Amino acid sequence: MIIQSSSPDTMKDILLDLVELIRPTNLPIIWALGFQDYWTTNITYIDILRMFVMQALQINPSATSSASPITSVHLREAASEEDWLKLLGRALDGIVEIYIVIDSNLLGFVTKQDRNGATRFLELFAKGIMNTFVKVFVSSVNVDQEQVQHRWKANQWSKLMIEDSMRPSQKRRRKQRLPLRRGRGRGR
Hints:
By secondary structure, the protein is of the alpha/beta class. It has helices at 8-22, 45-59, 72-77, 81-91, 104-111, 115-128, 145-151, 168-187, and strands at 2-5, 29-32, 97-102, 133-139, 159-162. 51% of the residues lie in helices and 13% in strands.
């Protein structure tokens, strides 16, 4: 799902709200959200995949105790995007469906605002995770929508357009609540 909004604040709120709405339903969800001072780090695609693997192992602990378990050796030896994507697929084995939320600011930082690179990164999920139905939510800001329209099958994606129709006083009130909501979301 490619989500488009005219307001970056609204977009961030939507992605945070998605995580907060899906988590209590016990549907499996993993996410990569911006964290404090992430722009001062050297974060890469591999780091995002690593975040996903670690969260997937938390929601699917059987991946570490199955007939072919993921071990600490596998985690230490994984070096490439392909290695981490394979580990993610294995960590999700047995999960029918997973929701993935990716913060547009974090994705933009990792890709150095390269929309083609971000779009190729999103394509990895369709190519690398075979036994789980993956639903990815991402902002249109860092996605090459032309590439999506021409290269992706129509049934593989959809676009949600959200207009920011709040009055300025509502925006101020909502902004004042954001730090509390972000803190709760990361602490769980």
